[in-house]
Amino acid sequence: MAAAYRGHIDEIKEELREIEAELAEALRQEGHSALAIPVSERMDERYPDAIFSHKLAAHLAGLGWIGKSCLLVTPEVGPRVRWTTVLTNASLQRTGEPAVERCGSCRECIEICPVGAFSGRAFQPGEPREARFDALACDRYFAEVEKETGYKTCGLCVYVCPFGRRTSARARSAP
User: Fold this and answer.
1) pLDDT (tens digit, 9 = 90+) per residue, 38-83?
2) pTM, full prediction
3) In what helix (H) or strand (E) does residue 36 lie, and over which residues does it extend?
4) Which residue has the higher pLDDT, 128 or 164?
5) DSSP bridge pairs for 36
6) Which residue, among 22, 20, 26, has the nearest Cα to 52 in the 3D structure?
7) What pLDDT, on the 0 to 100 scale, is given for residue 175?
8) 91 lies in which domain range?
9) Which helix or strand (DSSP H or E) is residue 49 part of?
10) 8 Å CB contact between 112 and 157
11) Confidence at residue 2, expressed as pLDDT on a 0 to 100 scale
12) Total structural domains in the chain?
């Protein structure tokens, strides 16, 4: 199961890399500057911090909210989504506003986390991620799981989110 999950994540990352490269090239062909920001790239291998927050960009674009799991949660598929970004100087029409958090009193992601990495605090712009999420604890757990299984996976917070679970249930019951 972990191998299938990891393989799926790797396939999605590769597809996103292809899409971001194609989009950036199309923007350049139109005479704009464009910079594809790689999906899931760390600034420093010793600390789990990305070079750019795709989740925050998606939140600011109105695609979802930053949930108690510090993941971007969409109304359609919950946190079951991967993000990438292309920065450009092209004049774009704004189509959304940052989404309002809809987790409410739900604490499922907090309670299922095997290392207690989430504080349960709501996202506040400008507040450091560490106020809500212990990324090092999560990263250490991933390393432990990798030693045991050969795969650096967990995903329990993604699995348990009610927004994503509703979508999965609908997909399973579709004809």
Assistant:
1) 887 777 777 788 889 999 999 999 999 999 999 999 988 999 999 9
2) 0.84
3) strand 34-37
4) 128
5) 86
6) 20
7) 44
8) 2-173
9) strand 47-50
10) yes
11) 62
12) 1
DSSP symbols for 110-160: HHH-TT--B--PPP-TTS-GGGTB-HHHHHHHHHHHHHHHS-----HHHHH
CA pair distance 129, 76, nearest whole angstrom: 24
- Parallel, antiparallel, or unpaired: how do β-strands 47-50 and 72-73 relate? unpaired
Residues 156 and 71: their CA atoms lie apart, in Å, by 12
Q: How far apart are CA 48 and CA 69, in angstroms?
A: 15
pLDDT at position 33, please? 98
Burial of 35 (0-12, 13-18, 19+ CB in 10 A): middle
For the chain, give the mean pLDDT.
88
What is the rounded distance in angstroms from the CA atom of residue 46 to the CA atom of residue 172? 39
Average pLDDT over residues 92-119: 94
Q: Name the amino acid, one letter, at 169.
A: A
User: Which DSSP string do the residues of 6-31 spell out, in sequence order?
Assistant: HHHHHHHHHHHHHHHHHHHHHHHHTT
Looking at residue 168, the DSSP 8-state letter turns out to be: H
pLDDT band, very low/low/confident/very high, at 167 (cuts 50, 70, 90): low
> In whole angstroms, what is the distance from residue 138 CA to residue 144 CA?
10
- String of b and e for 40-49 (b: at least 16 CB within 10 Å)? beeeeeeebe
d(CA 109, CA 67): 9
